[in-house]
Amino acid sequence: MKKWGISICALIVAVSQFCTHTIAAEDLKDKEILVYSDQEDQGFRFTPEQTKSGYIGDFVKWALEDMGQIPAKDSWLFVGSSSMRMWRDVKKDMAPLNIIHRGFGGSTMANVMQFKNFFARYKAANIVVYEGDNDLNTTDLSKVEPFLKNCQDFIDYIHASEPETNIFFLSPKPSISRWDKRETYEKARVGLKEITEKSDKVHYIDIATPMLGEDGTPKKEIFGGDNLHMNLNGYKIWTDVIRNALGLKPLEK
Questions:
Q1: pLDDT at position 6
Q2: Are 124 and 76 in contact, with CB atoms under 8 Å apart?
Q3: Residue 14: CB partners within 8 Å, gap ≥ 6?
Q4: Can you tell me whether residue 187 is helix, strand or coil?
Q5: Rounded to the nearest 5°, which phi and psi values hold at 153?
Q6: What pLDDT score was predicted for residue 146?
Q7: Count of alpha carbons within 13 Å of 153, Cβ hemisphere only?
Q8: What is the DSSP string of the chain?
Q9: pTM of the prediction?
Q10: What is the mean pLDDT of each run of 10 residues along the chain (253 residues)?
Q11: 179 vs 55, 133, 205, 210, CA distance in Å?
Q12: Which of 54, 60, 132, 177 pairs with 139 at a CA distance of 20 to 30 A?
């Protein structure tokens, strides 16, 4: 029988939430949390620093879901911000790949690095990362370098223990609502592509160019009402581009 557990300091405030698999993130902050199983190496210990994150609820929920599934060497780990989180059909769109979907809305590459050991524990042979939307939402071009450094640091961390892991970075996408920041995004795309060219285990997938119309601006028909997040037309572009980059056959219509 699987078991769950947390440190004693978090037990009183969290027990009811864990029993229902509903996590109250505010209750869990600033406490060391241990999610464990009677199966060896199936649990995960979150540090006090990690529990300060507003995303701790998502990660504890995932740790519970992961029991009995770690490591997941035959899986494709999809990590990223809201555009990744809202890709609800990713498992169908990327069939027959075995997808672990770990999108957390509003996140940055710095947030991915904060939970890097959580992602590394999957030992997935392939990791697909989408970040940049929130890192680069600025006209300050100096913000590009921290984003790129976090991307490189993530590569280095994963490859330190799993050097054969393929890491695929999706280019930060263009959007109507942030088109005034396009110079920042473009600088980041160029830098990210350069990083991926340093290793045959790191890859760049350009999802940005196909999202632009003939006039060079973002296609209006692929975005939802906020002009930032994509509708199904946008995810259709992502699906076609990524499947092609991964050598998968196009989905049957």
A1: 43
A2: yes
A3: 6, 23, 24, 27, 28, 33
A4: helix
A5: -65, -35
A6: 98
A7: 15
A8: -------HHHHHHHHHHHHTT---HHHHTTS-EEE--SSTT--EEE-HHHHTSTTHHHHHHHHHHTTT--S-TTSEEEEESHHHHT-TTHHHHTTTS-EEEEE-TT--HHHHHHTHHHHHTT--SEEEEE--TTTS-SS-GGGHHHHHHHHHHHHHHHHHH-TT-EEEEEPPPP-STTGGGHHHHHHHHHHHHHHHTT-TTEEEE--SGGGB-TTSSB-GGGB-TTSSSB-HHHHHHHHHHHHHHTTPPPPP-
A9: 0.89
A10: 41 36 49 76 89 94 93 97 98 98 98 98 98 97 98 98 98 98 98 98 98 98 98 98 97 81
A11: 27, 11, 20, 15
A12: 54
Say if residues 24 and 57 touch (Cβ distance below 8 Å).
Answer: yes
Q: Which domains does the chain have, with CATH numbers?
A: 1-70 (no CATH), 71-245 (3.40.50.1110)
In eight-state DSSP terms, residue 145 is H
| Sign of the dihedral through C-alpha 69, 72, 78, 79 | positive
* In contact, 207 and 170? CB cutoff 8 Å: yes
DSSP code of 238? H
